[in-house]
Design brief:
single chain; 145 residues; alpha+beta; 5 helices; 44% helix
Length: 145
């Protein structure tokens, strides 16, 4: 089984930030977690607001914890009985943010090796940056679509 390396996590973060600058997005915060939910790499651009790190971590942690990408997580949250995702958030210590922008990182064989969460612009634009970062590291992004 492949493990996410620091070098790969660094490529993901730096490429995602470069993509954000290319698209002229608001300042981003990028968080990369390994398959155990531990921080592997993170960067917060100048001007990125106070809660962005928590939001990005929540996006990554939520998809990793549930085992599917942010788009599927958002769909399930929309269909779930009232309070269900609130309960999940409570159980996870508030680390569950069920929106696009949380992307699973898969190895070539499909194994989940980590997750990326990005916050700063719209969820869809955050997700676009995560996809570019993961692909640049030679890994497969899984958005839940």
């Amino acid at each position: 089984m492949q493990a996410l390396t620091l070098a790969q996590a660094s490529v993901i973060v730096d490429t995602a930030l470069a993509r954000g600058r290319e698209l002229k997005l608001a300042p981003l915060t990028v968080v990369v977690l390994d398959d155990g939910g531990h921080l592997k790499a993170a960067k917060r651009e100048d001007g990125s607001s106070l809660l962005r790190e928590n939001i990005a971590t929540g996006k990554a942690w939520g998809v990793l914890g549930m085992g599917f990408g942010g788009r599927e997580l958002a769909r399930r949250a929309a269909k779930a009985p009232p309070g269900f995702f609130g309960a999940l958030s409570d159980m996870s210590g508030g680390r569950m943010v069920p929106v696009p922008g949380g992307v699973l990182i898969r190895a070539a064989d499909g194994t989940i090796v980590g997750a990326v969460g990005i916050s700063g612009d719209t969820s869809e634009k955050d997700e676009d940056c995560a996809i570019h970062g993961i692909a640049a590291a030679g890994l497969k992004p899984d958005t839940g679509d």
